[in-house]
Amino acid sequence: MATSIALSLDNLPSDPLLLVLSFLDFRDLISCSFVSRRLNELTGHNPLWKRLCQKHWLLSEADKTQRGLSWKDLFREYYADLGRYFDYYSTLKKAWDDLKNFLNQKCPRMIASLKEGVREDELDTIEAQIGCKLPNDYRCSYRIHNGQKLVVPGLMGSMALSNHYRSEDLLDIETAAGGFQQRKGMRQCLPLTFCFHTGLSQYMALETTEGRTRSEIFYQCPDQLAQDPSAIDMFITGSNFTEWFTSYVDNVVTGEYPIIRDQIFRYVHDKRCVATTGDITVSVSTSFLPELSSVHPPHFFFTYRIRIEMAKSALPEKACQLDSRYWKITNANGNVEEVRGPGVVGEFPVMTPGKVHEYASCTTFSTTSEYMEGHYTFHRLKNKEEVFDVSIPRFHMVCPPFRESVVRSSSVSEVSAPYDDENSSDTDDYEEGEMRGMNMADPGGRCPRHV
Length: 451
What we know:
Elements: H1 14-21, H2 26-32, H3 37-42, H4 46-56, H5 61-67, H6 71-82, H7 89-106, H8 108-111, E1 114-116, H9 120-130, H10 136-144, E2 145-148, E3 158-161, E4 164-170, H11 173-178, E5 189-191, E6 193-195, E7 202-205, E8 217-222, E9 232-238, H12 241-253, E10 259-260, E11 263-264, E12 268-277, E13 280-288, E14 300-310, E15 320-331, E16 336-342, E17 350-351, E18 356-365, E19 369-380, E20 387-398, E21 402-403, E22 427-431, E23 434-435
Antiparallel strand pairs: 1-2, 3-4, 4-6, 5-7, 7-8, 8-9, 9-21, 10-11, 12-13, 13-14, 14-18, 15-16, 15-17, 15-19, 18-22, 19-20, 22-23
Region (Disordered): 410-451
InterPro entries: ApaG_domain (IPR007474), ApaG_sf (IPR036767), F-box-like_dom_sf (IPR036047), F-box_dom (IPR001810), F-box_SCF_Substrate_Recog (IPR052121), Knr4/Smi1-like_dom (IPR018958), Knr4/Smi1-like_sf (IPR037883)
Domain ApaG: 274-404
């Protein structure tokens, strides 16, 4: 007669048990360690905690060797220090690591501007100073790096258009706290960035008040028609710090933002915005400039960068010169404007095999989005009678969502100002970072027509 054997954890082999345990998070592993002596031994298995250390704290074998601790003890040490940021640390640490690896290769001088992370007690002191709690993901990022020194170029991107230049620094926590806002229209708002050239910042709301949501990140946009100067409209650029920072880093490290003269320029390239005509390819990247835009009156300022390239494989006799440009510009209301003009940026570039010509221009609209398309007209150098058009792909420009101020004076609706909803403007006055013939000191000013 067969004898039945009662199953118990002590009788089961280790390998399948360790496989099951490998699917548990650290809290469940700790709970299992109290179930029995066998599970207590198995839950201390180094590979289990190595996986958790690598996943949550992004630790390597070199980190373990340097600290001289077991994987379990290393996990425990990090959790004791950074446990309140458990849901954010790996995401933000990876973003910072990816950004630094990229900067080392492309913009090395920015690395020197990064500041070491702050201590937990220093963040607590800042909270006491401003009388407001900082979001945990913001605190977590500043434990990794305390922003950057106030230098140019700024970590958060640059833009150059004639007499308007922007380079945004990521503020360290002490400087940010010094700019904490309690004025009407900006109550409980902490600056995240600062631009020396414009004096403007991106802000994070630390409380849900005055129409803002806690943790929301925005550009302030003064209402130019309001009698109450505290009326603040917002171009919203992120619902929380993690979204705002990681999306920016992703655009940087994937090459969506071009690097120009060791600086990050916030032009976004849509891979669909490429058109090839014969041997010539035209591609477009775009950017919205909130600091030159307003909601009241509706004035939305966009800039775009165009790259014209002739294939290296083109025959020498295909060399040509640009004569003129044609634009068809359509705003969100369906209003269309056509613009024709000689050359680009006042120049008539010659295209030869492998030659690249880049320039930037701008346009203003009274609607929050627009699209543009058109063509360049060229002639062959060997035969000026041979004229042909090169397509410019359709590209869309869309401003971030915005929110109107809840403190705007009710008399605003009674104030009128002349504004032509159908008119937009197009200029081609920029070559390699130098825009000419423009005056954009007034955010409400129009980009001059160039036809």
